[in-house]
Amino acid sequence: MIRLLEHSDESVYVALVKEFYSSDAVLRGIEEKYITRTFREIMRFSPYAEGFIFTVDGEAAGYALIAKTFSQEHGGSLIWIDELYIREAYRGKGLGSRFFQYIAERYKDSAFRLETEKDNERARKLYRKMGFEELEYMQMIRRIKE
Fold first, then answer.
1. Separation of alpha carbons 132 and 123, rounded Å
2. Residue 35 and residue 51 in contact, taking contact as beta carbons nearer than 8 Å
3. Cα–Cα dist 90/115, whole Å
4. Neighbours of 6 (CB within 10 A)
5. Which CATH architecture describes the domain 2-129?
6. All structural domains of the chain with their residue ranges
7. In this structure, what DSSP letter does residue 90 have?
8. What global pTM score does this model have?
9. Are 127 and 116 contacting, i.e. CB atoms less than 8 angstroms apart?
10. Could you report the per-residue pLDDT of 10-54, keeping only the tens digit for each?
11. In the sheet where 76-86 sits, what is the strand order?
């Protein structure tokens, strides 16, 4: 099952995010305060962010975060799939594909964009299967100084 995050999901969400950020899928971890800040932003029904949880037989199997924006390049609404994590035991069972179908239906008139590590071939294979094309962009970031 795929559904929007709820207030009661906070502890499982934090655990899933920590698992994701300690995996090979990311370059570096993040501070826990960012995780809780993101959860609070989603729970206040931000127009910019949504979070989803995946469950199988009542067990937490993964999560996804999206950010909503407008893109002139894409001619309208753009959904940035910021994070997608499925626990190892649930991979290869169609959850990722179902998530992409779910958001494609939810955001019919939107383009979708995501990023992945170059060596994450398993994820890249799924994304290609879902119709994503690789871009030649190099991303840059300017971090917030706290």
1. 11
2. no
3. 21
4. 12
5. 3-Layer(aba) Sandwich (3.40)
6. 2-129
7. G
8. 0.87
9. yes
10. 999 999 999 998 887 777 778 889 899 999 999 998 788 999 999
11. 2-4, 49-56, 59-71, 76-86, 111-114
